[in-house]
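BACKBONE GEOMETRY TOKENS
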Amino acid sequence: MTVNNGVIGVLLAGGLARRMGGGDKPLLELAGESLLARIIDRALPQVDRLILNANGDPGRFDDFGLPVVEDVIGDFAGPLAGVLTGMTWVAENAPGVEWLASFATDAPFLPADMVERLADAVAENKSDMACAMSAGRTHPVFALWPVRLAGELRTAMENEDMRKIDLWTARYRITHVDFGATFVDGDVDPFFNVNRPENLEEAARLLNERGAA
């Protein structure tokens, strides 16, 4: 399945980062570079274009040169709102593109082949969508979504107050792709995420000791 010209990526940065004490978690620095810059470096080669889903003043992200799109569902409705926002943006701005890849912005060791492997899994299994997993856990914010489901997702969010990704994806054929065994440094979870200050310290240690950048 061709991925580069047929997939737009959305970086999900619309949360409140409560466990980090608030603020813009993607702008936190890790080894001299922001988390967001690291994610862009890993995600951009995997897709045709990237957009950034973030709420509030978009000017704080000017240095990254990406379109900044706020949630189409208000009240900080979570990552599912970011997925819907990405789908909606693609439908309005790139009507020929059928797929959206979503990335959290707090996973500095994101696999460089994520989109390709998810796309291959969708094609092989004739799935509606695919999401990543590692270390026995699913990571629904790292996924490949069909833009054609934007209307159904919006209806679920607006009429059913749908907020949990897993509850919504359970309605469709979804394939889970395990990335745990393919990371260059096998003892580092490729979807290690920075939720708390101590996670940022751990990520710095991993970069320093294992060269996992």
Observations:
- The CA atoms of residues 75 and 179 lie 33 Å apart.
